[in-house]
Amino acid sequence: MKTNKLQSGFSLVTILVIVVAVAIVGYVGFRGYEVVKSNMDSNEAALSQPAVADDVPAAIEVVDTSDLDEASALLDQIDLDDGTDEALLDSEMAAF
After folding, report:
1. Which residue would you say has higher pLDDT here, 22 or 73?
2. Residue-wise pLDDT tens digits, 75-94
3. What is the spatial distance between Cα 66 and Cα 86, in angstroms, rounded to a whole number?
4. Which of 19, 43, 52, 62: disulfide with 67, CB 3.0–4.6 Å?
5. Full DSSP string of 64-82
6. CA–CA separation, 65 vs 71, rounded Å?
7. pLDDT score of 35 more than 80
8. Phi, psi of 79 (to 5 degrees)
9. Residues 43-61: tens digit of each pLDDT
10. Which long-range contacts (CB under 8 A, 24 or more apart) does 67-74 make?
11. Where are the domains of the chain?
């Protein structure tokens, strides 16, 4: 089959289809990158604010055994089963 010089190569339609396909893939990739970046930024903001215990008494300077008894009594008053650790863990796992 004989072709003219003007008929060889890609057609204009083929080139436009390729350009549109590349543009669509680039747009979808860019939007996906923005979503991942915003999720990472929100996770970093949540992790950068450490949890502070408000109900913990100040530390006692231990000089003798009676100070140890007093410190032990204060530590026994702290409720470790209040569920705040589990709630914090659940919220972090949900964000992960």
Report:
1. 22
2. 887 776 766 667 777 777 88
3. 35
4. 62
5. SHHHHHHHHHHHHHS-S-S
6. 10
7. yes
8. -90, 110
9. 776 666 666 666 666 777 8
10. none
11. 1-49, 54-96
